[in-house]
Amino acid sequence: MTETTVLEDSNQQKHQGAEAASKAERKEATWAQAGMFGLLMALVASLFISAFLWPMTTATPKDIDLGIAGPAEATAGIEQVLATNGKDTFNVTNYENAEAATDAIKAREVSGAVVVSADGIQVLTASAGNAQASQLLTQMASGIQTQMQQAGQNVPVAVEDVVPAGSTGAAANFTILPALIAGLTGSVVAFLLVQRPSRRIATLLVASVGAGLLGALLVGPAFNVLPGNYWMMALAIGTGAMAVGSFISGLGALLGAPGLGLGALTIVLFGNPWGGMMMPSEFLPTPWSTIGSFMPNGAIINLMKSIGFFPEASTGREWLILLVWIAVGLTMLAAGSYLHHRKNLVDGAQQA
After folding, report:
1. pLDDT band at residue 185, thresholds of 50, 70 and 90?
2. How far apart are CA 236 and CA 313, in angstroms?
3. Which residues have C-beta within 8 Å of that of residue 289, sequence separation ≥ 6?
4. CA 209, CA 207: separation in Å to the nearest integer?
5. Which residue of 21, 61, 115, 283 could cross-link 122, Cys pair, CB 3.0 to 4.6 Å?
6. Sign of the CA dihedral 69, 74, 79, 85?
7. Integer Cα distance of 115 and 94 in angstroms
């Protein structure tokens, strides 16, 4: 090896070393960049806090479905009392008798009812379905009692919880967690570790089935949060996990890592607070309550409550919402994978 060759090799190594050092310098964040990253994280944290506190601090009851049963003259007086509390607070439906009103509550057609009879006034609630509405109706019963006494009428007013939530019912909204966590983690794992679309779907399916079987065991027999049918709860949790996971994976397939993050933020940052996890839709401002009701989060919560506490209630709407989210997510996953495959073919042809 000649001296010239040695010098050339030495210069090349120096050049490569300098280039590597230059790249390392470019990758190293400056003080300003480090500060900006910290500021960005603080803004993200503030966004999360605002997303959850806004629905809770602006909650105003409206359009609560309420049944009324009893003689026409008596129910007209009750409707007038309800109107004084806010004309948009209740959507009133009249029923023939107390039994019909109770059946409507158990079918989740109304959130509660006021029954007028010769024995007095009975306010029926269902804390298992809507704890906030039940509290409002209980307060309303006290208001009716006061107005009756002021009018010189000694009419007894009683409150009965037709479908009670029980000692663990306050945790009913958190039965979404098995579906939510399995959907989020399953989509991330499928995006990072699995390449083929069919295998990504397999990962999501296994995560969803596992979440359904284990989640139903936890919220049912293990902690007794919901008393419903185990297999129906497992199916609901599994379907919910698949809806969340396929949507996030679909956005990831279309947009890459930014799409994955956007999908997760959509579910957590928007779906949880506006889908009814913190407050029921009747207490949320429009149009967010309407939009949030079509999120998978709210569909899962309502479905689980119906299975657990209201077996007579119709659940077709919730199942349909979840299936639509699954279909949209799988369609995006297939489209994103196809576009990525086409791009690889074009890049390969250009390099050849």
Report:
1. very high
2. 15
3. 274, 281, 282
4. 6
5. 115
6. negative
7. 10
Contacts of 111 (CB under 8 A, 6+ apart): 64, 65, 66, 105, 125, 126, 129, 130, 133, 134, 137, 282
Amino acid identity of residue 141, one-letter, is A
CA atoms of 5 and 15, how far apart (whole Å): 15
pLDDT digits (tens, 9 = 90+) for 270-320: 899 888 888 888 888 888 888 888 999 999 999 999 999 999 999 999 999
Q: Cα separation of 236 and 295, whole Å?
A: 15
pLDDT score, position 6: 45
**C-alpha distances in angstroms, 247 versus 15, 57, 137, 196?**
48, 30, 38, 17
DSSP-derived 3-state class of residue 223: coil
Q: What is the pLDDT of residues 88-115, one digit of tens each?
A: 889 999 999 999 999 999 999 999 999 9
At a CB cut-off of 8 Å and minimum separation 6, what does 340 contact? 253
Please write the tens of the pLDDT for every residue from 11-70: 555 555 545 444 444 456 688 888 888 898 888 888 878 877 887 787 888 889 999 999
Q: Tell me whether strands 90-95 and 157-161 are parallel, antiparallel or unpaired.
A: unpaired
**How far is the C-alpha of 276 from the C-alpha of 62, rounded, in Å?**
14
Closest CA to 273 of 249, 250, 295: 295
DSSP codes joined into one string, 255-324: H-HHHHHHHHHIIIIIIHHHTTSSS-GGGSPTTHHHHHTTSHHHHHHHHHHHHHH-TTS--HHHHHHHHH
Q: Which residues contact 194 (CB under 8 A, 6 or more apart)?
A: 200, 203
Max CA-CA distance within the chain?
118
- String of DSSP letters for 64-84: EEEEEES-HHHHHHHHHHHHH
In our burial notation (b when 16+ CB lie closer than 10 A, e otherwise), range 283-292 reads bbeeebbeeb
